[in-house]
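Moderator note: this is an archived Q&A kept for reference. The question asked for a predicted structure of one protein chain; the sequence and the answer are reproduced below.
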Amino acid sequence: MTTVVLVIHIMVAAALVAVILWQRSEGGALGIGGGGGGGGGFLTGRGTANLLTRTTAILALCFFVTSILLTFMSQRSGPSGSAFDSPAATAPAAPTSGAPASAPAEAPRGGILDRLQ
């Protein structure tokens, strides 16, 4: 189910980008205004502008709905809690063959801080 919603989400996002790019610029932004030459935008006329505006609104609504659905689905299927709730697991230190097991292992020398001293 999550895969189906994710595919729909990606398709809606691509359609939303396409519809936004088809819309005619209303001008004034950084001196670009009007989309270049005297021909106007790719789609002209008040009817197509209304159609593209409504299509953008519908696609934006679908995008928000699929985003919220994906959020709820990921919370239900994933483990509860946070990664910060439990302490980090440390690897047990392997005893060296010559040292007794109760002696603490000496840190290896030759790191960058040792070189700077």
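Archived answer notes: The first helix runs from residue 2 to 22.
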